Amino acid sequence: MEKTTATQQTMDQVISPAQLLEHWQGHRRLTRRVIEAFPEKELFEHQIGGMRPFSEMVAELLAIAVPGLEEIVSKKTVEFREKSDFGHSKAKVLELWDESTEEINKLWNQIGLERFQEYIKLFGQYEGTVQSSIFYFIDNEIHHRGQAYVYLRSLNIEPPFFYER
């Protein structure tokens, strides 16, 4: 199989890395507004049908995004660690969300165009390309945000419009 040059990849691509980052960050801005919409107590305690509280889902999203990008950039396998040191504080959740958003921007600029089609084994267990891993980060966030919409509606709170990213 012939190796594709960065120039050829640029000609063949449908979306640029900058556009993909903006797409992801648009989802992150929307997820932030969903976090803001929750009453503090319910962010940490409200559950339906055995699903986790949204704060625990957010902890998962935080455990994936920056650590995953750090692994992509460094090429050093890290262990997936889902932790939440929120202290039942919505302000702390938002603070950590904002910090991770800034870190994503910094790490993103360290991924060369040629890396997006490179095969990796993220967290030592999830195989795919750099690009497919990033799509997973985005898809997983959308999935959990959908669960949060159900929670908000069950609390009689109108969630943010999903298309306003």
Automatic annotation (TrEMBL):
A divalent metal cation binds at H144. This is Damage-inducible protein DinB. The lineage of its organism: Bacteria, Pseudomonadati, Bacteroidota, Flavobacteriia, Flavobacteriales. Keywords: Metal-binding. InterPro entries: DinB (IPR007837), DinB/YfiT-like (IPR034660). The keyword Metal-binding applies. GO terms for molecular function: metal ion binding. Belongs to the DinB family.
